[in-house]
Amino acid sequence: MSILVYTESDNGKFKKAALEVVSYAKAIADQMGTSVTAISINADNEAELGNYGATKVLSIKNDTLSAFNAKKYAAAIENAAKNEGSKVVVLSSSADSKYLAPLLAVGLEAGYVSNVMEAPSSVSPFTVKRTAFTNKAYANTEITTEVKIVGLSNNSFGLVESGGSATVESFSPSLPESGVNVESVDKATDKVTIADAETVVSGGRGLKGPENWGMIEELAEVLGAATACSKPVSDLGWRPHSEHVGQTGKPVASNLYIAIGISGAIQHLAGINSSKVKVVINTDAEAPFFKAADYGIVGDAFEVVPTLIEKLKAFKAQNA
Ligand code: FAD
Questions:
Q1: Domain of 16: which CATH number?
Q2: Domain containing residue 121
Q3: 203 lines ligand 1 (CB under 6 A)
Q4: Confidence of residue 62 (pLDDT cuts 50, 70, 90)
């Protein structure tokens, strides 16, 4: 009757979100007086999950699962949940997990709540707090089905190291034919993605043109950050659409979001307001973004950003 948690990995390495969902599942397990079983697919170093609260890892090694396939992955998790008799299944809020959740909900006849922010306020009845209306409100939601699926918002719970250890068991679920097989995946870039980034450096129309993105990329490189942009910037073709964040773009839930030359329109804020610390650089002291910012610099990006890069490089050199 353990809590089952699906842990995502990339090239064998667990994503930060995987460690976060295990930490979160451990909090639920403590509330329910049970343990955490993790399921991993083609990941290395599965025992690492013990440090975040899993006591058992069901390890699947299967070449046919090397690329994400929603139908097969969902079948594997469903198999594990049934074998373990799990009444709670925890997923992240990644794009992959959002494909898996409805399939699992059907297979397990479970209720699914996405974008959950905190450990349940109660496990009987099972009640969780989730974001609503593009993060402008919270909804306390009760899941009434016997099996419950919880999708945790990235970066909402954090990583909690419990110092435990996990046994690793090989797991070979029976998998359905999916009708679609991904032959290979070629990544367009090796850069850190917006979804996985701790820090995001984002540029808006205030940067005047694509030729000025060198300093945004340099700042991102110094900080080990992902780059992002406002909608008009990608609409104008200055940056790829994959960098567009906001209500109609990607959501950002980083620890640090640096907005440069972005006005802070409501549709932009809707996608980034789960970020923990927001820093705004804008020439206009009346720009709406300053109201949502934790730190603001009223100044010209073309002066502030190069200075920031220089100071950060000096700081890194001193502390290397
Ligand atoms: P602008 O509004 O033009 O702002 C540029 C800012 O740069 C200004 O505040 C200016 O003071 C500042 N600036 C100028 N020069 C400098 C300088 N040298 N140094 C520093 N600062 C400078 N937008 C999104 O971003 N994401 C979305 O998902 C999204 N979805 C939308 C959905 C709908 C249905 C609609 C209607 C709109 C949506 N928008 C979205 C667009 C949104 O309303 C804004 O138009 C957009 O966010 C503005 O982009 P911006 O801040 O880059 O540009």
A1: 3.40.50.620
A2: 3-170
A3: no
A4: very high
